[in-house]
Every structure is written in C-alpha cells, then in structure tokens.
Amino acid sequence: MAQGRSYALFLGCNAPVRTLNYDMATRAVLGRLGVHVVDIEGFACCGYPLEAADHLTAVTMAARNIALAEAQGLDVLAICSACSGTLMRARHELVHDERLRAEVNARLRKEHLEFRGTAEVEHLLRFLHEEVGIDRLRALVTRPLTGWSVAVHYGCHYLKPSEVVGGEDDPEVPHTVDELVAVTGATSVPYAERQLCCGGGVLGYREADSHKLIAKKLDSVVAAGADALEVHCAFCAVMYDGNQKAAERAAGKAWNVPVLVYPQLLGLAMGIDPDELGFRHNRVRAKELLARLEGVSAAR
Amino acid sequence: MAEAPLGDFPLVTDAETDPGFADRIRATPGGEGLLRCYACGTCSASCPIRAIDEEFNPRRIIRLSLLGLRDEVLRSQFIWLCTGCFICQERCPQDVRITDLMMALRNIATQEGYPHPTVQAIAEMLEAHGAVLETGDFENERRAKSGLPPRRPPAQPVRDIIEGTGLGGRLRAAKAKGAGAATPGADAKGGEA
C-alpha cells in the first residue's frame, strides 16, 4: 500500500530550479495522500544528458542515484519523465546484464555504494494511477474541475520504450493520464498533436527545431479549444511553459496556453489552495482558470 | 539529352567507405540491431524532427552507416538532431532500436573526437555542479521562500564518474584539438531516403 510509506523523491536537475510549481504541487498532493517523501541529499543528475556522449557514464550516474535510495531501503518516485525513463532503463539493463552491473558497481565502490536492484523506480503518475488508484483519488476530490477542458500531453518517456516504462499503457493509445485527469472532474479533450514530442531533446542542439515542435503542439491545443495543457515532466513543463514566450517570438504569434503540471490539477480538485500548488511559478498565468475555480467553490 | 541514370545521387566508392564501420556500431551499446534494418522507412515517416527539419532522416543515417560512410556520419550535425522520443524505436518492425542506435552513433562520434559542443558543455556543467543547472544559494533562497527544502547536488561523485570512464578526458582532448565536432556542411542534404 502506498499510504504511510516513504519514497525517495527524485527531482532531477530542472524541477528544483525551473519548475518549482511541480515540486510544490507534488509535495502538497502526496502529503494529503499520506505518502511520505524523503529528499536524499546525494541525488545528482539522472544521467540522461550524457547518454549522447557515453553510455557507461550515463548508466553509472543513474545506478549511483538508485543505489543511494537502496541504501536507505526506499523506492524512488521521479517527477520528470526523462529522469524516470533514464533511471528505469538503466535499472532494467543493470538487472539483466551481470557484467555491466559488476563494472558499474566497481565504479561506485569509492562511495561505498552498490546497485543491487532492490529499489523500484516509478514515475509519479504511474504511482498515482497504479499504486494509489483512481478510486482512492476520487474519494479525495472535493472541488471537481467541472467544465475545464484539458489537453493531455503524455510526453515520450512516460510511455516509451513501452516494455520498460509503459506500464499498462499502449504507447499508441495511452489512457492512464486521461483517467487521472477525468478523476479531477476536468475533461480530457482530443487534439491532433497529442503524441507529439516537446522537443526538449533537441533544444540544446538546434533550438529552432524545438520551437517548431512547441508551435505545432500549441497550435493544435488551441485549435481543440482546450483551456490548458497538462504535463507531467519537468522538461516538458520547461518547454511549453518556460519557453512558450520564446517559441511565440519565433513563430510570430501568441498562444497564451496555461501549462499545468498534473499534481496542480489534482491538488485543485482536492481543494488545496493554489498558492500551495505553486501557481505563482507558472510562467503563463492561469488566472482566468483559477477565477473560474473560485466560482465553483463559491457555489458549493 | 538523357539524364544520367543516377540523377543527383553521388557515387560511393570503396575508397570512402570503412567496411568495419557497421561492426563497430554493432559492438557499441545500442547499436546491436543495425543489420536488421530493411529500409522500410517507418522511422522516417514517424519522426517528429524529420517532419520539420530536412536535414534529419533516420533511415538515411542507417543506410549511410551500413554503407560504411563513417566520416560522413560521425562528423555530421545530423546525428545530434534526434530528440530521443523513441517513437521510431517503438514502431520499427525489425527491432533495430533506432533511438538507442542514434545514441550509439553519438557515443562513437565522441570517441572519435567529434563530440557536439553542447554535450561538452553539459559534461562541464555536470562536473562543476552535479546537475545541468547550478543549484546554489540564490536558487535555494527561492526554494526556501516557496517552502521547499534545499537542493545541493554533489559535484565530486559525478566528476569521479565522468573522469573514471574516460569521458572527461575524451571531451577535453576533442576541445583542445578544436575538432569541435559536427562540422557543418559535412552533408546538409537530407533528401529522400
């Protein structure tokens, strides 16, 4: 059972600095669910940015983080899909490849760490969907977001590679986040570019391409008449919220689409104050949406 | 007058090819499935970057690799344009594991002295801060104001890992050589593969 248990919260590099709203909302929601989070001081980068340079280096960095959680007997909850994906893929590889495990563990010995494969790694939303469960979440909804149209952005590393990270989702026709959005009372609206990548992976290599991908996505979200875009990855949040203005300049148009991280949606539906959910850190202001919420709560 | 039968297609001669290149890729983590490609083009048809940037074409990169056009691949910009979304890997009917393969090509390019400047900068950042963003006093003051606990990722263990695998040295050597990798114009043509 998830309730009453402790998990190591893996924030990655971006959330603690660039998406404080995600950090805050995650803690607020997990606190209400009776899930304790432990901040492990030694956590560093997950390794993802160096997969491009050297596989062994990236896997060792991932293994080190997992080993730190194992040393405290904790499973890992990651809120960035690039992090959860990297940690899960590394874990999968290390569990199945004894030689690689020995090589990596030799490199971790200096810190007296060892990867044994005893800790599970999960993405926050898979945890909410599979461990906490939709029924329990439904019981906690006191302020349903009735009338809100939300475009769900599954993102890539929450779904793929499916055999390692995909859980019960079919990567071509995923459903878990739609269910998580539906339980808040909001409506998940279909839109053409639902599967499209945020472009975070190419940001540092060809920024113009990443802006084009943001434009394609947000054009589609606007065309579908959505009130907001839902994300559950720190890097997707940086791309769509933090970089929305830059992409608008590049495209010569304005979308002004509020980008909400999932625990902000859930938290609002659970009656948590928007301030505690970090809405002041949302770069594209969600004022109009929140004003609607006040209306809902006043009517109750 | 009749057009040349090959049109604009360049002739590839043995002199330009490295017959061991495919094996080198297959021996690199992520590149194991290279030979299974039968060029169906599902990857290129699915690729979000391919849809917006002519220079990137995964099927073409695989064909160049199989032909042994080592330098054209390793010194290119285009191998660094994959956004790592895994959609091609998921859909590939031959299980080439294309996203992993793109990473393998970048790993080899880095070994050969052609790392992209961005990956060099990332490694330097990680060695200095243990994270790709500095998380110092300023950031922690902001965190405290939001009721969040401090974050201080340790740099030393990350530096030890990057130096221990030899990656740090490889990146510095490439930088000193000014190889700076990714020579623009190695081949800017995307073309239909």
Mean pLDDT metric of chain B: 91
Note the beta-strand portion of chain A: 5-15%
Largest protein-protein interface = A-B, 56 and 60 residues
| Rough outline of chain A | globular
Largest sheet of chain B: none
Quaternary state of the chains: heterodimer
Major β-sheet profile of chain A = 4 strands, parallel
- Our Rg estimate of chain A from Cα atoms comes to 19 Å
Overall SS class of chain A = alpha/beta
Portion of residues in helices of chain A? 40-55%
Mean of residue pLDDT values of chain A:
96
Q: What is the number of E strands of chain B?
A: 0
Unreliable stretches covering 5 or more consecutive residues of chain B? 181-193
Distance between the termini of chain A: 32 Å
Strand fraction of chain B:
under 5%
Count the DSSP helices of chain B: 10
Please bin the fraction of helical residues of chain B: 40-55%
Strand order of the largest sheet of chain A: 2-1-3-4
Number of strands of chain A: 8
Question: In words, what does this structure look like?
Answer:
The complex is a heterodimer of chains A (300) and B (193). Chain A is built from 15 helices and 8 strands. Chain A is of the alpha/beta class. A 4-stranded parallel beta sheet of chain A has the order 2-1-3-4, with helices on both faces. A 4-stranded parallel beta sheet of chain A has the order 6-5-7-8. Chain A is globular, with a radius of gyration of 19 Å. Chain A starts with 5 loop residues before the first strand and ends with a helix. Chain B starts with 20 loop residues before the first helix and ends in a 16-residue tail after the last helix. In chain B, α7 crosses α9 (156-164). Chain B has helices spanning 21-26, 42-46, 58-67, 70-74, 87-91, 98-111, 117-129, 137-145, 156-164, 167-177. Chain B is built from 10 helices and no strands. Chain B has 193 residues and is mainly alpha-helical. Helices cover 45% and strands 0% of the residues of chain B. Chains A and B meet through α1, α2, α3, α10 and α11 of A and α5, α6, α7, α8 and α9 of B.
